[in-house]
Amino acid sequence: MDGRFYFGFGFDVHPLIQGRKLYIGGVLIPFEKGALGHSDGDALLHALIDASLSAAGYPDIGSLFPDQDPKYKDIPSTALLEETIKLLSKKQFRFYQVDLTMVLDEPKISPYYAKIKENLGILLKLPEERIGLKARRSEGVIFQKDKPAIASFALVVLEKTSK
């Protein structure tokens, strides 16, 4: 790999069910349903992790943190991101910019944008102006009312700090 900037794209989706907590970007969102997953089901962080791994030339999130491994059961996705950042550092990468989009019909996420961006800034060591964060509703086209879910897309730009 040679160059200064490296790009990666990630995607994740989880059904929303009763009895689980909803984490988005490492922030607990008050809602009666949460993401079904082996870990805490934070689809936004999972997409971000996958994009980051891709940009740095690593295997995907499922290969590095397999859902068959009991040590990842209910693990906070922030812990998976911390492990990912350690891997990136080994190859002299750091985050330069991220652009994240969520798709979910409920709950409304805009009241939590500031908290999510603040948390992402801390986790990624990025100023908030380098964090794009958006949410869209599927309008019933992607997710049906009786099968709610959250999907997330991530574009990551990593900067190589040395050769």
Automatic annotation (TrEMBL):
Binds 1 divalent metal cation per subunit. It is an enzyme of class 4 (lyase). A divalent metal cation binds at D12, H14, H46. Pfam families: YgbB. 4-CDP-2-C-methyl-D-erythritol 2-phosphate binds at D12, V13, H14, H38, S39, D60, I61, G62, F65, P66, D67, Q68, D69, F143. Pathway: Isoprenoid biosynthesis; isopentenyl diphosphate biosynthesis via DXP pathway; isopentenyl diphosphate from 1-deoxy-D-xylulose 5-phosphate: step 4/6. Keywords: Isoprene biosynthesis, Lyase, Metal-binding. The record marks H38 as: Transition state stabilizer. Residues 7-158 form the 2-C-methyl-D-erythritol 2,4-cyclodiphosphate synthase domain. GO terms for biological process: isopentenyl diphosphate biosynthetic process, methylerythritol 4-phosphate pathway; terpenoid biosynthetic process. Its EC number is 4.6.1.12. Its cofactor is a divalent metal cation. NCBIfam families: ispF. Homotrimer. Belongs to the IspF family. PANTHER family: 2-C-METHYL-D-ERYTHRITOL 2,4-CYCLODIPHOSPHATE SYNTHASE, CHLOROPLASTIC. Involved in the biosynthesis of isopentenyl diphosphate (IPP) and dimethylallyl diphosphate (DMAPP), two major building blocks of isoprenoid compounds. Catalyzes the conversion of 4-diphosphocytidyl-2-C-methyl-D-erythritol 2-phosphate (CDP-ME2P) to 2-C-methyl-D-erythritol 2,4-cyclodiphosphate (ME-CPP) with a corresponding release of cytidine 5-monophosphate (CMP). This is 2-C-methyl-D-erythritol 2,4-cyclodiphosphate synthase.
